[in-house]
Every structure is written in structure tokens, then in C-alpha cells.
């Protein structure tokens, strides 16, 4: 094994390891929330977190993954000012638009805006670290934030005896705030800009590549999470949203391996010097992603409904997990392929396939959720995931064939 291959393996192990750690923290937080606040409380939290994700999705147009692709063209420090200005604007646009449209709960406007801004900052700094080839610190930011959230939430609920959604939001704010401070400390070591670059030119390039990359990411997030808002505003209400959110968190847990490998696929594809090198790395990651997801899916399907009810405190989770099974496999493959296309600079295909996925989700959800509730939401998600992955496979083949 060459030195480069050895380093690559270590990076993969570290990425998967930190994802496992984050999964443990996230699972513990969810268990505490459901046990203390019940399905309705968990549903309210999931709806608020949808708003935070909407803000971070908009933040990524200038302060997201495009910084990794543009590392060869723009000094990393030159991205800081436009990125941070946009983070503030995105918090206002995302929260304001979501509340005015009824997509987000108006009573949590302030919390969504502030928490979304902090989360967007952590993500931006993490992408800068990834662009600087500091993969370990990029991974550590995520797991550290989850650990701090778990500790502060336990203190709020059990030591200060304040079991409420407000306490969760305060705990989340503390965890994001401390992680943001650490990320600021880490990015101070970014390489200095040797040649000053005009701010307008930096914004122009970030927007040119970021709009394609982040449109797909934002649409993908909405495809994954829009069901939470649809359920919350339906006759099923926050309780159904809570049940569905637990099943969907389980789905995301099954994506542990692909989500750990996807940033590596993106970074390696972006710097690959040949098609053979690109495809070899991505095929290897795709096999690992599908195997890891399949193993976790089988485990999740073998757990009886009574065990889910015992763990989370309410019924109805396992049937939703079963209905999400196709989405688990399709989503695992989609994550790897989408990051390969992003590494090639073909972000627009991710946007188009995510748009078709979102359209499929909405059309199915409108018909199925009123009749079948959480199961209908899961079927809608699986249908959307299937449409998306077939589109990505077609785009991947087309892009690599034209690159011959």
C-alpha cells in the first residue's frame, strides 16, 4: 500500500468514526427528547430544525461546498468576508420566507434565525477546513457539537429540571455557539492570501459555482424534510410529525457510511488527474456506502415495533421505517454519485435531479398523506428518492462518457 493510499484509508476511518460518534450523540438526544417531551414535543423540535436546515441551505449559495471546488482559484481567506455577510442575509431570508409562507412556525422566528446563522457558520468554516485538506478537524466539528448538545440538554432537563422545547433550543444554541468559537480558532491557520483578490470577483465566482451546487443541496434537503412541515400542518399534526421524524432520523442513521465518505469523494474527485482515478475512488466508495447502508437497514427492519415503542415512548415507528426502506438504498447511492458530479463541477445535474425528486415528493404527499398519514409520507419519500437516483445515474454516465 502506497503512502497516499494509507493516508486515504486513515481519512476514511476517521470520517466513519466521527460519524459513528455523532450518531451516538444524536440518538441519545432524540431518546431524551421523546421520553421527556413526547411525540408532539419531538414533532415541534423537528419542525424548528427544518427551519434551521432551510437557513443553512440558503447560506450555502456563497458559504457552502463551492469553496472546496474553488480552492484552486480563490485564496481561502478571500472567501471569509463575503461568506459571513451572506450568512447573516441568509438567516433573514430563510426564516422570513419560511414563516410568511406558513412553511415554518412563526412563534420560533428568532430561534430559527439565530440557530440557522450559527449552524451555517459552523458548516462554512468546516468547508474551509476541508478545502485546506484538514479533514480531521472538519469531521470533529460535527461530532463535538453533538456531544456538547447532549451534555447541555441533560443538564437542562435533569439538573435544572426544565423539560421543555425552550430548554432544547437553549442547549442547541450553546452547543452551536461553542463549536463556532472553536471553528474560528481553527480557521485562523488558513494559508495567507499571496495575491489579493477583488471582493466583487470573489463573490462572482462563489455565486457562479455556488448557485448550481447549492440549488441541488437545498432542493435535496427539502425533498428529505418537507414532509415534516406537510405533516405538521395536516390533520395528523405535531404528533404524527414526531413519529415520522424518529423514523427519518433512523433513515439518516443508515446513511452513516455514505455521508462519511461523500465529502471525501467530492474532495478527491475535484483534485483527480484522470478519469480512471475518479472512477476508481467513487466506485470503491459506492460499494462501501451500499454495503454499510444495507447492513444497518436489515438491522432496523429486524427490530420489532414493540422495541421501538419501548425505546421512544410511543407506537407507530416501525411501519414508517419499513416504508422508508427503498429511500435508504436509493439515498445512499445518490449521496456518493452527487458528490462525484460536484467534484467534476457538474453541480447542475444535482439540482435538476433534486428538483424532480422534490416534485415527485409533493405530488405523492398531497395524495398519500391525507389518506395514510406517516406511512403515506414515507412512501412519498421513497418514490422521490427512486426518481432522483435514476436521474443521477443517467447524468453520471453522460458526464463521464463526455469526459473520455
Summarize, please.
The chain has 15 helices and no strands. With 404 residues, it is an all-alpha fold.
List the helices and strands and how they pair.
Layout: H1 3-63, H2 66-69, H3 80-100, H4 109-131, H5 135-159, H6 165-187, H7 199-232, H8 237-254, H9 256-271, H10 275-302, H11 305-312, H12 317-323, H13 325-343, H14 347-372, H15 374-402
Helix pairs in contact: 1-3, 1-4, 1-5, 1-7, 1-8, 1-9, 3-4, 4-5, 4-6, 5-6, 7-8, 7-14, 7-15, 8-10, 8-12, 8-15, 9-10, 9-13, 10-13, 12-15, 13-15, 14-15
Task: Give structural notes.
The chain is mainly α. It has 15 helices and no strands. α8 packs across α12. The longest helix has 61 residues. The protein starts with a helix and ends with a helix.
**Main sheet attributes: strand count, strand direction, barrel closure:** none
Q: How many distinct helices? A: 15
The CA-CA distance between the termini, in Å, is 28 Å
Give the amount of beta strand, in percent. under 5%
Overall 3D form = globular
User: How large is the radius of gyration?
Assistant: 20 Å
Mean pLDDT: 91
Content-based structural category: mainly alpha
Q: Topology as H/E string?
A: HHHHHHHHHHHHHHH
Residues in helix, %:
over 70%
Total E-strand runs: 0
Question: Which descriptors would you attach to this protein?
Answer:
single chain, 404 residues, mainly alpha, 15 helices, 85% helix
Amino acid at each position: 500500500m502506497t503512502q497516499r493510499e494509507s493516508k486515504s484509508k486513515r481519512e476514511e476511518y476517521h470520517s466513519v468514526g466521527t460519524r459513528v460518534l455523532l450518531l451516538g450523540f444524536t440518538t441519545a438526544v432524540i431518546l431524551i427528547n421523546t421520553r421527556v417531551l413526547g411525540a408532539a414535543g419531538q414533532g415541534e423540535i423537528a419542525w424548528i430544525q427544518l427551519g434551521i436546515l432551510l437557513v443553512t441551505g440558503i447560506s450555502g449559495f456563497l458559504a457552502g461546498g463551492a469553496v472546496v471546488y474553488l480552492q484552486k482559484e480563490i485564496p481561502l481567506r478571500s472567501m471569509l468576508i463575503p461568506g459571513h455577510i451572506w450568512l447573516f442575509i441568509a438567516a433573514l431570508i430563510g426564516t422570513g420566507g419560511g414563516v410568511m409562507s406558513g412553511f415554518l412556525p412563526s412563534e420560533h422566528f428568532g430561534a430559527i434565525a439565530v440557530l440557522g446563522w450559527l449552524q451555517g457558520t459552523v458548516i462554512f468554516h468546516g468547508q474551509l477546513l476541508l478545502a485546506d485538506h484538514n479533514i480531521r478537524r472538519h469531521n470533529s466539528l460535527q461530532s463535538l457539537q453533538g456531544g456538547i448538545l447532549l451534555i447541555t440538554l441533560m443538564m437542562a432537563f435533569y439538573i435544572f429540571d426544565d423539560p421543555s422545547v425552550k430548554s432544547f433550543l437553549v442547549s442547541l444554541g450553546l452547543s452551536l455557539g461553542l463549536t463556532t468559537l472553536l471553528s474560528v480558532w481553527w480557521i485562523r491557520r488558513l494559508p495567507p492570501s499571496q495575491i489579493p483578490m477583488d471582493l466583487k470577483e470573489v463573490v462572482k465566482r462563489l455565486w457562479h459555482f455556488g448557485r448550481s451546487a447549492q440549488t441541488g443541496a437545498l432542493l435535496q434537503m427539502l425533498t428529505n424534510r418537507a414532509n415534516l412541515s406537510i405533516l405538521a400542518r395536516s390533520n395528523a399534526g405535531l404528533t404524527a410529525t414526531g413519529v415520522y421524524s424518529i423514523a427519518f432520523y433512523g433513515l439518516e442513521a443508515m446513511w452513516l457510511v455514505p455521508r462519511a465518505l461523500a465529502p471525501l469523494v467530492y474532495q478527491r474527485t475535484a483534485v483527480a488527474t484522470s478519469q480512471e482515478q475518479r472512477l476508481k475512488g467513487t466506485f470503491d466508495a459506492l460499494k462501501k456506502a451500499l454495503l454499510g447502508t444495507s447492513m444497518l437497514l436489515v438491522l432496523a427492519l429486524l427490530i420489532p415495533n414493540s422495541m421501538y415503542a419501548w425505546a421512544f415512548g410511543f407506537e407507530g415507528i416501525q411501519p414508517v421505517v419499513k416504508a422508508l426502506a427503498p429511500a435508504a438504498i436509493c439515498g445512499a447511492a445518490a449521496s456518493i454519485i452527487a458528490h462525484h458530479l460536484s467534484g467534476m463541477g457538474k453541480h447542475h445535474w444535482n439540482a435538476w435531479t433534486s428538483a424532480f425528486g422534490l416534485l415527485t415528493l409533493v405530488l405523492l404527499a398531497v395524495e398519500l398523506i391525507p389518506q395514510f398519514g406517516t406511512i403515506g409520507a414515507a412512501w412519498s419519500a421513497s418514490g422521490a428518492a427512486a426518481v432522483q437516483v435514476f436521474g443521477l445515474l443517467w447524468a453520471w454516465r453522460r458526464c463521464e462518457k463526455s469526459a473520455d
